[in-house]
Give the backbone structure.
Amino acid sequence: MLENCKTAQERWGGVSEIIDRWLADRQQLLIDYCTLSETVEELDNTQSGRLLQHLCQILVDYVSAGHFEIYEQLQKEGQEFDDQEGLKKAGQLYQSIDSTTEFILDFNDKYQEIDDLDAIETDLSRLGEVLASRFEAEDQMIEILHFAHQDQLEHNA
């Protein structure tokens, strides 16, 4: 039994590293978003256009990592700890997160090519709101399905 607990500690402790890397990616996303937002009036030039395309790529990478890596790991952790209440709350949070994905992907599709920037200021503003909502829900999901089990991991180690 102790061996199983050690395995759980190693297994779910590794999730912390994945989450830490993902949150570092989020921080870079925010830096790039702010940099672009500050130069939005100059988006005609090549440098700012590259910033916009770079932001689009980072957005897609971030969203993909969340959907195909992070959320899956968090759900597995909740299941392993038989955290039914946490899984239920996380399901509700996931719906909120998922609703932001469509806007982010539409933003990417619209601005992958920088030939139509008429609505960029409005779209960037809306993107900021969408990201804030998403980040809040993601943070809650991490808290509910990962950090809530840290005491159990440490206690069993």
Notes: The radius of gyration is 18 Å. The chain has one domain: 2-156. The domain at 2-156 is CATH 1.20.120.1370 (Four Helix Bundle (Hemerythrin (Met), subunit A)). The first helix runs from residue 2 to 38.
